[in-house]
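Recall the central idea of this unit: under ordinary conditions, the amino acid sequence of a chain determines the structure it adopts. In this exercise we apply that idea directly, starting from the sequence alone.
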Amino acid sequence: MKIEIWAEVTCPWCGLGSHRLDRAAERFEHGDEVEVIHHSFPLSSSFPVDETFSVRDALLRRHGMGGSQAEASTRRIEALAEAEGLSPYKVLDNMVGNTELAHEFLAHASAEGRNREAWDAIFRAYFGQARPVFSLEDLLGLGQEIGLDREDTRQALTEHRYQRQVRDDADRARRLGATGAPFIVVDGKYGIPGAQDTDALVEVLRTVWAESHPLTLGTDGAAPVCGPDGCAVPARG
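Accordingly, the structure predicted from this sequence is:
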């Protein structure tokens, strides 16, 4: 079973949604046959490059949300994350910025066979440690942590080798019906928008699995059975 998830690096629902998907795969009876692949869905292109803002400032600028409203909405996400095993999970007291280079880094890491490691590392660094993940130096350090060659990574990012791939990834998600992130697609046919809870995700996985693995009877069904009207009587030998 192939599960694809599109996400934005600094989206708190994406970090939580990715965690919930991991938990669902762990609980799923056939989880050892599940492949999870992360894709990019950048949402920060309106932010200037090489400049960061506090989440408080960004909420006020982009959504007109400030003070107690910003506090309540972000603390709720932090509390949900903590209740589900992500602690700390820093949302309000964090920084945001243009993430296009971060997505190019993730595409490079994926090309090097480290899709899962890179996405886990960037979510852990950003939400778990409130580390910046926006500049070239930020990303080179993160790459070294997951075993990427520093100079190869530098070259890939300075050449913007994966810029087109990142855009194509996001375009594909939109064609599949995504209007935001996170967005999950199971086996190329079931789209799941938003950070659905773990129980709901497990049920989707079971439904898709049952449809793609129909039960086949191994005999002609002639063996004796019991039913509503009683049990079959064995024929005399």
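The first strand starts at residue 2 and ends at 7.
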